[in-house]
Write a structure and sequence with these properties.
Structural class: alpha/beta
Mean pLDDT: 91
Shape: elongated
Bound molecules: uracil
Largest sheet: 6 strands, mixed
CATH superfamily of the largest domain: Uracil-DNA glycosylase-like domain
CATH topology of the largest domain: Uracil-DNA Glycosylase, subunit E
Low-confidence stretches: none
Number of helices: 13
Strand content: 5-15%
Distance between the termini: 8 Å
Length: about 350
């Protein structure tokens, strides 16, 4: 997984990049440092390829050397002004995706002023830069390393077998409690139709936990979340980031099939404490609510400033949040059912899923 993206212009800062890369590999896995988009297939939309590459990182380093601002092509036009300039596309995309963008000044370069930059790069001028000087290179790089480290999501420790068996027992207790909850608003509907409650499925030690809305009829018939058409979309999205169901944990905000479309407030308030128990057991590093109901529930539960935001504004945004077991991220996503019939929404969901690569 590429967590650190280094953007640079060969003719401007190549020498420094090699030195920086060597230092960074003492602190980070080589696979976590991404420098060049090595191959773009013939016919591929290269802007999209670059945007996707940037979306997989959580820290974006923009190397700025003495020729960065003025470098031109053979005809003398400034490269930064060209719409197809790789350096510009990548930086603009990182800024647009709200990445942590750190300008790194080398060769005594100065930070460019907003007026020297094309519109999509102007916000770069406000980013605090780190200077890598020749004489204090190691010291300066260490400053950069600690800035990068504090921005990376914490890796989750893997549960030992004892913890895993405790988790399995706690999950079973949730199931038993729900099966016997005769006062549940959906108990009658479930038992009369011989449906199953749908607690959740996947790795009890997963780093990534998805929370959908409620099981549908397919799920209630099998007792498993997302096994109908929406589940096919979910599987496709997981596959696009190299994951399978077993790698993540999937549940819903309401754990019985309601038999109607929109969730009712009394259903949410009855089932939410079960979901809270699931969160305490799984302890994921990232919670990905699928759709507006679970997004609103999570943002309100965590009392986050975004709690009144709409899913159309918040989808794909990593939002830091405190949980009793440590800091996590919430990543609101569109519900797979919404994207079933819309190619453009599906592309958006696929792009938003890339953010989860940080937690793999
Ligand atoms: N939709 C959901 O929100 N959850 C499921 O489990 C299936 C479809």
């Amino acid at each position: 997984m590429s967590r650190i993206f280094i953007n640079y212009r060969r003719q401007d800062s190549e020498g420094y990049v090699g030195r920086l890369y060597d230092h960074l590999t003492r602190h980070f896995e080589r696979d976590d440092i991404f420098m060049d988009v090595d191959s773009i297939e013939p016919g591929a939309d290269f802007v999209k390829v670059l945007e996707d590459a940037v979306s997989g990182c959580d820290v974006f380093i923009a190397m700025i050397g003495p020729q960065w601002l003025s470098a031109g092509d053979d005809s003398g036009s400034r490269r930064l002004d060209q719409w197809n300039d790789f350096v510009r596309i990548e930086i603009a995309s990182a800024l647009q995706q709200n990445k942590l963008v750190i300008p790194v000044l080398v060769g005594q370069a100065r930070m460019p002023a907003p007026n020297d930059l094309p519109d999509d790069l102007k916000p770069l001028a406000r980013r605090n830069a780190i200077e890598l000087s020749h004489n204090r290179f190691t010291y300066d790089v260490e400053k950069l390393v600690s800035a990068v480290k504090s921005a990376l999501p914490a890796a989750k420790r893997l549960g030992d077998p004892e913890t895993l068996s405790q988790k399995a027992a706690a999950l079973k207790a949730i199931r038993d409690d729900l099966v016997g909850a005769t006062h549940s608003p959906l108990y009658k509907f479930r038992t009369e139709n011989r449906y199953f409650p749908v607690i959740g499925e996947g790795n009890p030690d997963a780093n990534i936990m998805f929370i959908g809305e409620s099981p549908g009829k397919y799920e209630a018939a099998e007792g498993k979340p997302f096994c109908g058409p929406s589940g096919e979309v979910l599987d496709e999205m997981l596959l696009s980031i190299g994951l399978k169901r077993e790698d993540v944990y999937v549940t819903n905000l309401v754990l019985d099939f309601p038999g109607h479309k929109d969730l009712l407030p009394e259903e949410i308030s009855f089932y939410a404490p079960f979901v809270d128990r699931l969160l305490d057991i799984i302890q994921p590093s990232v919670i990905a609510p699928l759709g507006r109901f679970s997004m609103e529930y999570m943002l309100k539960k965590l009392d986050l400033p975004e709690k009144r935001g709409k899913i159309s504004q918040l989808h794909g945004k990593l939002i830091k949040a405190p949980m009793p077991y440590g800091e996590i991220h919430v990543l609101p996503l569109y519900h797979p059912a919404v994207v079933l019939y819309s190619a453009s929404q599906k592309d958006t969901l696929r792009k938003d899923f890339q953010k989860l690569k940080l937690f793999i």
